[in-house]
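User: Fold this; tokens only.

Assistant: Input:
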Amino acid sequence: MPQHIEGPVNLHSPKRRLAEGEFNNIEPIVFRRSELYHITGVDDRVLITALETKTDFCAYDVDMKLAGAPDEDVPLQMTDAGPRAAAQTFTHTIAIVMPASFYLPFLLDAAGKPPDDRLIYNIKPLWGEFYRAIVVANREWLEGLIHDVVWVALDLGNFEAVKRCLDSHRELAEVWAVRFGKVVFTQGIERVQPVIDHLWSLVSSSPVGHIGSLARMRSIWTDPSVQHTPNKAMEWYGRTLDMLFCRLEQKDPAYLGTAEGLDLAVAVPNFPESFFDARVVPFATRMASKTSFIIPFVTLLHREHQEGSARFPTFPAVYRSLVPAILQDFSPFTCRFSKYSQTYKRDQLVNPTHISWLIEQSRKMGLDMAEVLTTMERKINAIQRDHDIFPLFTTRLVRILCENLREKHQSDFSAAAGSEEGAFVVRLVKFYVTPSAGPCPPLPQDWRQSLPNVKPDCCLDCAELRRFVEDPIERQKEFRMIEQRRLHIETKLSQHFIFYTIRDGTPHTLRIMKTQAEALEQRDSWMGRAAEKRVKLETLNQKVLLRETLGDHAYQDICACVADPAAATALDPVQTGSQPPTLSGPPQVNMQARTRLRPPLEATAPVIPRKRSLIDLDLDSDGAEDFPSTCKRR
């Protein structure tokens, strides 16, 4: 019998001569593929000839011994030592061949027999293989089996078996809620209450998971086919709902997010009207600052109210009162982040679809849309300054709003751009594409500048320096003073001023010259950021179709925020001819400031010799020697 054997096999050496009555033992094995060539019965009659089977079957307690000379009609069996005769005789062999559908019932029946039964003793090792092959490898089959066990146990009233299934498969408990509700209605709450009370003791999938299960139980009681509802079941429902909602109210709001808000909105239509007014409305008001929970909750509940599934007369007034409170603490984040966080995931942000629902529903409810959109814009832009949420949040919100505008106005660009939602989109995009420094800084019209660190009340020298810096006409100034006072003024100057000491006469002279280097650096920096923003704006237009939604005029208005000012007329006072008359030529020192060149020395007037006193020598340590001039730049 050529065979492929799976399982432990305990074979003695074929060369060993066994004592009389001793057999070669084969442990319990499973034959995955067998070819039966010649099977004889006890009376030597041929039972099966050349039968090939692929169906798994088992052989238990098989004893084997070698017998006689090989038969020519029996094929040879290949071994490590070579071919040998396969003519073997099996004594009290049991081979069970059965369909796959009978395999599990057979094992279940065998498991209930006495343990001293030799057949059952040999079946036990197969349970491990059965568990690995069917239970572990096929999870769906196991869940289906558990479902069947629960339904049969409920129909038979074996609630202890149901509780054991709940303990072993807690994740499936909420799926069985509808069936539990049917049992409550058909068999009475008194009988099934121990099982359902055990359900509330299990760990829920979310803070509102048990409330959702209770609502699904209650939902089938209002089916049109149901003619009545037992009073005891309704009393039990009211007590249980109050108990579960108390648990929800005691939960930390940090554990309430989008999924919990949606689940609660689905469950609320099954609540009594009095419970909605007394418990749900105060809870929603208290949770108004939790944006990720309250917005999905109120928007989905509003849609159910419009569809007629949530019939609460007070809901419109509740909605109108909740929206201002929601916008007051609006945040697109579902959790707290550090001010310097730079990476986010999509599930850490509020779903923009719910934000678009809130905008649409606020218009239908007659709220002031200008106030709603302005408040939301201010909150979003304030967060955008510290956190780059535009790619994951604002872009998706703009895309949804643009889709709604295209569907509503049907290519009417002027109506779309003139609507409050269209203007809201334009303002959001403008804030994103405009560089953080604001519009392009213009070239200065005069020589007025500023030094924030110079206080006029510091000293007389600082007051004089501040007057010079803020003067719109004066371009350079000389300060003749002792070294200590010159050094004090030098510490107040920024890197955009050129100053140097003229060592001629005593005391020496500090000459300070204004430049336009600061304005030009700011302008160049803005130009670099604007170029990056223009690329991002074009990419955004391809994603959300801004031009196709708002038209060319609105799109060009957005592009003007990052337009290249080089194409416009220069505002340089030298080029426009509007510089003050005291400035005779272009400020060449600007180029010196940008390239860090030393300015040329100016010719000095002849010095009239005079006799100096000891007091003058003490005040000015530079001396009267003719040292070469030096140039400094901060």
